[in-house]
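PROTEIN DESIGN WORKSHEET
SECTION A - STRUCTURE
LENGTH: 133
TOKENS:
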């Protein structure tokens, strides 16, 4: 059981840390320019906490645990990147379909980010899994 807890904690920690860096500093101007008129003055912290609790669980279920017995870490990274791509694509493509003025470029950047952050976070989870196992 401890390997599951360690892997989840590492996945969640890395996801939150690099996503906050991305959202708070690196991509903030892109989001402000593209969808600033839709952005809240303050984030909904409860919604954010639920997301950051659930998304790493999805990475665990679809990428870390199923690939834990595999020798190749690449399978974990690919499974996680695909999970991130499809989940972020659901959000961005729904917004493109339903909202006026949602920027295509921002959607593409966001989907790429979802793939990347998912892969990195899942690899951290896998490392923690193996360290405890």
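SECTION B - SEQUENCE
RESIDUE ASSIGNMENT:
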């Amino acid at each position: 059981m401890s390997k599951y807890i360690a892997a989840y904690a590492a996945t969640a920690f890395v996801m939150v840390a690099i996503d906050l860096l991305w959202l708070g500093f690196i991509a903030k101007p892109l989001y402000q320019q593209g969808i600033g008129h839709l952005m809240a003055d303050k984030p909904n912290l409860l919604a954010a906490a639920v997301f950051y609790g659930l998304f790493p669980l999805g990475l665990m279920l679809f990428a870390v645990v199923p690939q834990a017995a595999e020798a190749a870490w690449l399978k974990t990274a690919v499974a996680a990147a695909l999970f991130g791509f499809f989940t972020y694509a659901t959000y961005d493509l729904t917004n493109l379909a339903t909202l006026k003025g949602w920027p295509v470029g921002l959607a593409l950047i966001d989907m790429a980010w979802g793939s990347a952050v998912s892969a990195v976070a899942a690899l951290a989870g896998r490392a923690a899994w193996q360290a405890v196992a």
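SECTION C - NOTES
The mean pLDDT is 97.
The chain is about 85% helix and 0% strand.
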